[in-house]
């Protein structure tokens, strides 16, 4: 049996670092105080080599990730799908509540993500889905998977690896 090599590109750039505020719940009853992180991101894509002998162009992957990290930079990141953190917005402000606690932010300071909890893992999933949307036409069907890793605190990574959609 001949062993075939596999190929992957990894892109992690200082430019990907984004500063965002969030709070999560854990152990059912504990809701963190609002706090911030300088999040880091690494993006990896695996697949065969193309005619350039690339898996994908680093630059195209970098630019797609950067669109997503810049959209989060200097925002409060809130969960859309949490059972107890309720998010409502009017024309000016976004209000988050958890039981008897309440946080009010200007709308333009908030990004509401389709997640249950704004953990590094969930943020990695959302970035992965959005990078796929941005690049799937360009990268084509040969890619096998994408992995996005989000670093919350200099070495605490949440990682989401997902199969590349075949269309
Ligand atoms: N698997 C995961 N575990 C934890 C996550 C996560 O996203 N995925 N997130 C948290 C909290 O957000 C927590 O705030 C992590 O922040 P950190 O600053 O690292 O926590 P500390 O309070 O210990 O930080 P100091 O370095 O002491 O300031 C927890 N777990």
From TrEMBL:
<comment type="similarity">
    <text>Belongs to the PTPS family. QueD subfamily.</text>
</comment>
<dbReference type="InterPro" id="IPR007115">
    <property type="entry name" value="6-PTP_synth/QueD"/>
</dbReference>
<dbReference type="InterPro" id="IPR038418">
    <property type="entry name" value="6-PTP_synth/QueD_sf"/>
</dbReference>
<dbReference type="GO" id="GO:0046872">
    <property type="term" value="F:metal ion binding"/>
</dbReference>
<keyword id="KW-0479">Metal-binding</keyword>
<dbReference type="Pfam" id="PF01242">
    <property type="entry name" value="PTPS"/>
</dbReference>
<protein>
    <recommendedName>
        <fullName>6-carboxy-5,6,7,8-tetrahydropterin synthase</fullName>
        <ecNumber>4.1.2.50</ecNumber>
    </recommendedName>
</protein>
<keyword id="KW-0456">Lyase</keyword>
<dbReference type="GO" id="GO:0070497">
    <property type="term" value="F:6-carboxytetrahydropterin synthase activity"/>
</dbReference>
<keyword id="KW-0862">Zinc</keyword>
<comment type="pathway">
    <text>Purine metabolism; 7-cyano-7-deazaguanine biosynthesis.</text>
</comment>
